[in-house]
Amino acid sequence: MQRYLGFIALFLVVAGALAYQFLTDRTEQEGAPSPKVTEAAKPAAPRPASSPETPKPIQAIPQGTGFDFYVLALSWSPTFCQSPDGAGNRDQCGPSRRHGMIVHGLWPQYERGYPEECPTDEPERVSQSLGRQMFDIMPSMGLIGHEWRKHGTCSSLSQQDYFSVTRAAFERIALPASLKSARKETRVAPEALEQQFTAANPGLTGRGMAVTCEGGKLEEVQICLTRDLAFRTCPEIEGNGCRQRSISIPPIPETR
C-alpha cells in the first residue's frame, strides 16, 4: 500500500512540474512581443542618367556701339620681323622673341569703310600696367598704343574693355596646326591656308575672312566678327585676299 501511494505521489509531482512548465511557456509566448521582422533594405532606385551638361554660356562680351562689326587682324610675326620696320623692333623681334601669330588689331568696321581716331573720354595713352597684360599677343607698347588711338577709340568701349574684347577675339580663333609649329619655311596657296582656318573654326567661311600677303609672304589673316564675336561674312574684307598662287610662310624663330 505504501509503495502504491509512493507511485501516486511521484506521478503527481511529475504532472505538476509538466503543467507548470506548460503554463510558463504559454505565458511567455502570449506576453512577449512578436519579433519584429525587418525587411531587407530595398536597393536604392538607380538615379536616372544625367543628361549632357548644358554648355556654359560664353562669358558676356562688353558691347561696343557706333559700328557694324569687327575685323580681327592677325599678323604673322616672322614676316614682319624680316621687314625693314621689324628689324629695329626689339620688343617684337629681338633675339629672345619667338612669336608666331599675334594680334595686329581689332578694328570696328562699317558695312562700307571704317571709323578711325574717334573722340573719347578715355585717356589717349595706354598705361604700362594695362599694356603689359597684352604682351603675349600684342608684344609692343607702340603697337598697343597705336591700335587704341586709331581703332579702339571708335569702339565706344573703355580701354580696359577694348583690350579685354581684343583678347577674347584672339582666343576665339583656333590656329591651324601648320601655324602652331611652323619651324621650317613652307609654301602654301592662300586658298589652302584659308581652308585650314575654316576647318579649324566651325562657322567660319571663306566669305568671312581674307589671307593677305606682302612680298610673296604671309602677312595677315583678317577675320570678321560680330560685336559679340560670332563669325560673319564681310565681302569688303574678303576682297583684301592675296592674289598670288603660292606664298611663303617664314618660320617661327628657334630658341637662341
From TrEMBL:
Designated name of the protein: Ribonuclease
- The record lists the organism as Rhizobium terricola
- UniProt-listed Pfam families: Ribonuclease_T2
Which is one GO molecular function term here?
Answer: RNA binding
**One GO biological process from the UniProt record?**
RNA catabolic process
Q: Where is the signal peptide?
A: none
InterPro entries on file: RNase_T2-like (IPR001568), RNase_T2-like_sf (IPR036430), RNase_T2_prok (IPR039378)
Q: Which SUPFAM superfamilies match?
A: Ribonuclease Rh-like
Extract the ranges annotated as region (Disordered): 27-59
Q: Which domain of life is it from?
A: Bacteria
For bias type Low complexity, the affected ranges are: 38-53
Q: Which family does it belong to?
A: Belongs to the RNase T2 family.
